[in-house]
Amino acid sequence: MSNANRPSAGDRPLAGKVxxxxxGSRGIGRAIALCVAQMGAAVAICGRxxxxxxxxxxxxxxxxxxxxxxxxxxxxxxxxxELVTKTEAALGPISVLxxxxxxxxxxxxxxxxxxxxxxxxxxxxxxxxxxxxAVIPGMIQGGSGDIINISSxxxxxxxxxxxxxxxxxxxxxxxxxxxxxxxRQFGIRVSSVLPGSVATDFGPRAQAKNASNALTxxxxxxxxxxxxxxxxxxxxxxxxxxxxxxx
Length: 247
Known about the structure:
Elements: E1 18-22, H1 27-38, E2 42-47, H2 50-62, E3 67-71, H3 77-91, E4 96-99, H4 114-142, E5 145-150, H5 163-183, E6 188-195, H6 217-228, E7 238-241
Helix pairs in contact: 1-6, 3-4, 4-5
């Protein structure tokens, strides 16, 4: 993380907590995983790239965190159930869930295939339902929890070529809001972070992005940290995050 966004030394507000970060091996997910580890949490990450998972797992352990990594397809309920079971066996009950896994396929709707629709909606929306459903009973039993869904400003704004991606993120916004209402009675907060352009290899014009006019993955992690360190009686339901300068 950048020094500006790094939790101060000795500040470990998540000590004793267990965080699960989906898509946690690279990009935004990696930055979030390292951030919550620095805040004192034990961290589980999942993804599909074993080499990337092992690399980030090594970074987490090198930072002194208890950590677990598991190859998981979060669009499959049986693999999600195995992920939660093995995470809790290795680290303990999950009290923080960051639903970060996501993909983007872009272009006019009439040029996209049914398979592409299924792939984007399953990864960006169905996976949040599956992972949250698997984790929530434990949070209810524990009487508290935080679920943070990494959405996008595409969940609020339309743009040419964004039909399938925007549909997944608009759907995620609706799911997040309804989950928040379902779960607040149990002391569980459900929030979303909606980043704008982030300097990663993700997006329809990733190679053309001017990194100086884009957010960094650490900026998104900082927004997550803000949600996780709010006072116990407050509930920030959404953070919209934009680059200071337009591209």
